[in-house]
Amino acid sequence: MALRAFAAELKKGSAGLLLLALLEARPRHGYELSQMIAARSGGELRYNAASLYPLLYRFEERGWIRGRWVEKPGERRRRFYRLTAAGRRMLAAQQSEWRSFVRAVEQVTGGEHA
Is the pLDDT of residue 88 over 50? Predict the structure, then answer.
């Protein structure tokens, strides 16, 4: 059980970085973001789309992303989010911090791939 809780905390702490990274390429909606994370991680990381929306709303309030409602015939209305200039700066800072963190963990644990 302790291992599962540890993994959940790691997953929770990395969700923001993952969202910003996926929005760097193009606008996406919440469900697409959750599906992409699962697919790109080989199923190791799974987020319910509904659990991502509080983060997306918070990022929008901070000016890191901007959302826009899109309606297409025969489809439900979706909110697409895109990265802003401030979001790109935050993404770069988070990526740098993540790399430093991984290097530090590798140095402490002696592992080549933390």
Answer: yes
* Closest to 89 measured CA to CA, from 68, 65, 67, 66: 65
11-39: average pLDDT: 94
Q: Name the residue among 72, 65, 54 with its Cα closest to residue 22.
A: 65
pLDDT of 114 reads: 47
Contacts 24+ apart (CB under 8 A), 39-47: 45/11, 45/14, 45/18, 47/11, 47/15
Q: What is the mean pLDDT of the chain?
A: 92
CATH number of the domain residue 93 falls in: 1.10.10.10
Q: Residue 31 belongs to what domain range?
A: 2-109
Residue 114 resides in a domain: no
User: Residue 112 above 70 pLDDT?
Assistant: no
| 15 occurs within a structural domain | yes
